[in-house]
Amino acid sequence: MSSPRTVRHRLAADAGLLIVAAAFVLPLAWVVLSALDAHANLQVKIPDGVTLDNFDAVLTPDITFTPLLNSLLLCGGATLLTVASAALAAYPLSRYRSRFNNPFLATVLFATCLPITAIMVPVYALFVQVNLIDTMQGTIFFFAASQLPFAIWLMKNFMDGVPKELEEAAWTDGASSFQSLIRIVLPLMGPGISVVTVFSFVMMWGNFFVPFMLLLTPEQMPASVSINDFFGNRGTVVYGQLAAFSIIYSTPVILLYVLVARRFGGGFALGGAVKG
Amino acid sequence: MKVGRGGARRPLTRALPLAPSLVLLLLFLAGPIAYCAYIAFTDLQLTGQAHSSFVGFDNFTAAFKDDAFLNAVWLTLVFTVLSSLIGQNTLGLALAALMQRASKPVRTVTGAVVICAWVLPEVVAGFLLYAFFRREGTLNAILDWLHLPTQNWLFTLPILAVSFANVWRGTAFSMLVYSAALGEIPKEITEAAEMDGAGGWRRMWHITLPMIRRSIGTNLMLNTLQTLSVFGLIWVMTRGGPGNRSQTLPLFMYEQAFQKSMIGYGTAVALLLLVVGSLFSLVYMRLLRSEA
Fold first, then answer.
1. Maximum CA pair distance of chain A?
2. The complex's ipTM?
């Protein structure tokens, strides 16, 4: 029953959206086209011929593999730490009543919104004093701590969704809380855990400021920092290679996002969005 | 009332699983914040860090007399208002409203493109927009093709360029928030308004906006908090320059602390940023509470 008016409305809406999409797609088109172009510059243009030379040139240990491995170590380690700590912390918060729960959760929610950027200078000064500066473990600890408030918040909400009755049977069989957490609760909240894991990992993978401040040795730098070398140390900027590297570096997070968004829908997107 | 196993007899063992999180949060989050509050009142410098002394509010009084600081405050305001309040928020709402009426393929494509901009790592987004706004970049090529005057955007209007970059990167969030909010408005209400002859704009203003006001509040708060702490995007595009014409507070803080070695002063600026962030955070929590 689409009246001429609804059709007209739909066409207008389509046109409006396509204009915005065209504006948004230009920078994305640049990175894709330039990566395939042997003579890429700063403009969006159709390459004269498609080539994979740019990818060939950047796929070396120095430029790609070491930084990506560093990123994986940093973000993977910190994500593991975040998810494990958050799962443990969520259990008493979700299962027991205590007068500390609400103040604690309020503090956690408050910390979720704090601008982490602002505390990087004191964190640097502190890390210099306790000799954690320029160490992978120090950066991993800080990454985990900065992501924890949100991870605890999400994890607690997901855990609230697992009915308590399921555990009670295990308790009467003499299982400890820890056993019932590992054997019953966590397996039942697989989607929740994957959301927290993917979200933490994606946030850290894209983070530039934290490793930029806390790591000094070039060999330890993750991809988010090493990408700047395309401008500094290698003379004239080869834009095609910068674009190729950008694609390699961005692919994991885009894949992870698509994977999770597919399975869990917009809810993940929104949950994930809180920290934007 | 159901009491969990062990009753109130063993509150400590029950709280044990909280220990790893508590240790991490205290050592690496609460610790630095406390340290931040302390060194903001000292004259700590990067060189010769053994001698720092308590200077009271000197760093803060110095800041408010410092033109570079006031410039950074002004630019942060411009950046936040332009990119978060006006840009991301309005564009996000417009996209969500249009998506309700658009055909499915167009909706899917637009959503994918906008979200892709948002999922990309911050530094990559910075490079893409740097290429877009450079003198030899795509924007000028298009303007030239349309016979419009071109200019070196990153030099003439750097704060505008980085604000647009932030809109490009952050709009997806508002779009998702508003899509969810609009989806929850019952169809009967909009249909009834349509029957009464309320046109599109009037419906938006009198019915839709009041119904999603909580989402608007939440969205504005979170957008603003996120925008206040943007560093990488601006750093990649302009380094805060030319001069200090796109130097927002995070970049100013960084420059003072590391390029000028004034850790105490840089931290004082950081503390101000933290206080502003905390205020927004508290307002956000109030909003969430009234929503529940």
1. 72
2. 0.87
